[in-house]
Write a structure and sequence with these properties.
- By secondary structure, this protein is of the alpha/beta class.
- It is built from 23 helices and 19 strands.
- It has three domains: 235 residues, Thiamin diphosphate (ThDP)-binding fold, Pyr/PP domains (Rossmann fold, 3-Layer(aba) Sandwich), CATH 3.40.50.970; 154 residues, Rossmann fold, CATH 3.40.50.970; 122 residues, Rossmann fold (3-Layer(aba) Sandwich), CATH 3.40.50.
- The longest helix is centred in the first third of the chain and has 22 residues.
- The radius of gyration is 27 Å and the shape is globular.
């Protein structure tokens, strides 16, 4: 959609049409809502001033980029948002040339922008192209953003950073003064005067430099952008993020400056949908809902694995004051918000800072506390070095509670929690366990609480498989539980939520099959596996994890080490590819891992 010729009234009407379209589709499909509604005007203004076919448009996390998708040829296709085979909820270059980079994890945009700016400079295209990065006030809390800002301020590559501040953190009086001053400081007149004064001062020695510097610093102190200015990046703002005229004016000014510029834009979450406006965390990402009432259309009757984890941890924390915990900007999603509310001195949300979260818990463990580091499986990837270097190297008793392990559905490739077994299993001193049911979760949490070494406990998004299983025995290090003992040569080995899938598959096969709840993939229950090797010659592995380096790999390594050569092993873990977005059951069907599909393969 070419909006270069649109006037302000036409652009404002377009913003309303975009909001209506987003509400229509997200209320039906689910998705990110409040932040993407709030970013509508700043994105429309970007497309008015810049050209996404040549200027890299880089959206941090990119959950706020729905307006960008609608403006770049995906208006009709938007109905398929987050559906299997449809368009992704995040930017994705395979989907459109206007999506510069894949995104889904936070705080990468400025680094990408710096890299793009370097490439543009090397190509000699700085006069015709400029990277434009959009980053939220939450994402800029992460250290990676400051690593990039540090280099950008030093190298001075032309780049525009739009800081989308939707927390309303700047007060109105300061904001009004700052808008006036920032507009003046960004103007060509001010920049020309500043450059001339710098050249003049160079002729008057050190004392003149000192006085000029002091004057400029005093001037900047009444603006909120002094930190960025001190890093060598020009600052404009705060700017009303819903005033198209102001946004376009500031974008044009920043574009003309030919240097790194940060534009501080204030927006209102949920703008245009009154029910979601303001600081309501539940409207960040939503399930399908009724537009008129705001009520979700479906409510699960079963307890989620996250709720069970929260209940277990609350019970443990009530009885042990040494229990502490952390999450990284996901207090509600991980269930830790209840513990933060009840024990604010012992449980913390450290914002988008997984590396800091892990290392801070390592120090608490060294001081004699028992930390529970509660993070989505996909986000622990961001703290991998810290898990190795700061926790496992010293063999510290940190529990990594990995929510959203396995397929997470509509969020897609960047969020599927499929790699944690593969990347954690390689670390010395690390123990890996997984419960398969609500009762098993309480047993597993009891073990993790008592255990004096690092361990990782994984559990799925949503509920555990609801199929009835035998009563779980207490968790003991490296011990599995034989749930069903059969007489055929087939053994089903389940890990975590894979146990339920294995049990469902068993019911579709007319054979007397044994079912083993592995419980621990590191260390393995070598005694039990030796017993099973004598009774069963066909082993099938069920686990919501990557096949490469996963549970099946661990079993095959065991058989090789023990020189057991007469066992046929087949793993139904995920193949070596990224898993797309869509309804979880539809994805599982596409991967051919539904119980009826697995039963057919085995037969």
């Amino acid at each position: 959609m070419n909006i270069k010729s649109y006037n302000i009234e036409q652009l404002e009407n377009l913003c309303q049409e975009i909001r209506d379209r987003i509400l229509e589709v997200v209320s039906r499909n689910g998705g990110h809502l409040s932040s993407t509604l709030g970013a509508t005007e700043l994105i429309v203004a970007m497309h008015k001033v810049f050209d996404s076919s040549k200027d890299p448009f880089i959206f941090d996390v990119s959950h706020q980029a729905y307006a960008h998708k609608l403006l770049t040829g995906r208006w009709e296709e938007f109905d398929s948002l987050r559906q299997f085979g449809g368009i992704c909820g995040y930017t994705k270059p395979q989907e459109s040339e206007h999506d510069y980079f894949v995104a889904g994890h936070s705080s990468t945009s400025i680094s990408l922008g710096v890299g793009a700016a370097k490439a543009i400079a090397l190509r000699g295209e700085s006069d015709s192209r400029i990277p434009v990065a959009v980053i939220g006030d939450g994402a800029i809390s992460a250290g990676m953003a400051y690593e990039a800002l540090n280099e950008l301020g030093d190298r001075k590559y032309p780049m525009i950073i739009i800081l989308n501040d939707n927390e309303m953190s700047i007060s109105k009086p300061i904001g009004a003064m700052s808008r006036m001053l920032s507009s003046a400081m960004a103007s060509p007149f001010y920049q020309r005067i500043k450059k001339n004064v710098e050249q003049l001062v160079d002729n008057f020695g050190e004392s003149a430099h000192y006085m000029a510097k002091r004057f400029e610093e005093s001037f900047k102190l009444i603006t909120p952008g002094i930190m960025f200015e001190e890093m060598g990046i020009e600052y404009i703002g705060p700017v009303d993020g819903h005033n198209l005229e102001s946004l376009i004016e500031m974008y044009e000014l920043a574009k003309s400056m030919k240097k790194p510029v940060i534009i501080h834009v204030q927006t209102l979450k949920g703008k245009g949908y009154e029910i979601a406006e303001g600081q309501h965390e539940k409207w960040h990402g939503v399930a399908p809902f009724d537009i008129n009432s705001g009520h979700t259309n479906k409510k699960s009757s079963s307890k989620s694995a996250t709720q069970i984890y929260t209940q277990a941890l609350l019970h443990i924390a009530e009885n042990d004051k040494k229990v502490v915990g952390v999450t990284a900007a996901m207090p509600s999603g991980t269930g830790l918000s209840e513990l933060i509310k009840k024990y604010p001195d012992r449980f913390w949300d450290v914002a988008i800072a997984e590396q800091h979260a892990v290392t801070s818990m390592a120090a608490l463990a060294k001081e004699g506390f028992k930390p529970f580091c509660t993070i989505y499986s996909t986000f622990l990837q961001r703290g991998y070095d810290q898990v190795i270097h700061d926790v496992c190297l010293l063999d510290l008793p940190v529990v990594f509670a990995l929510d959203r392990a396995g397929i997470v559905g509509e969020d897609g490739e960047t969020h599927q929690g499929v790699f944690d077994i593969s990347f954690l299993r390689a670390i010395p001193n690390m123990t890996l366990l997984a419960p398969c049911s609500e009762k098993a979760m309480h047993r597993a949490m009891g073990f993790a609480h008592r255990y004096r070494h690092p361990c990782s406990l994984r559990y799925p998004r949503g509920s555990f498989n609801q199929i009835q299983l035998p009563e779980p025995t207490p968790f003991e290090l490296g011990k599995s539980q034989l749930l069903i003992s059969g007489v055929s040569d087939i053994l089903f080995i389940g890990y975590g939520n894979g146990v339920g899938r294995a049990r469902e598959t068993m019911k579709l096969i007319d054979e007397d099959i044994s079912l083993l709840d592995l419980r621990f993939v590191k260390p393995l229950d070598s005694d039990m596996l030796h017993v099973m090797a004598k009774k069963h010659k066909r082993w099938y592995i069920f686990s919501d994890s990557s096949k490469a380096g996963g549970v099946g790999s661990a079993i095959l390594e065991f058989l090789t080490d023990e020189k057991i050569t007469d066992i046929l092993v087949e793993s139904f873990e995920y193949e070596d590819e990224f898993i797309t977005h869509g309804n979880t059951k539809v994805i599982e069907e596409s991967l051919e891992i539904l119980p009826e599909q697995l039963a057919k393969k085995i037969k």
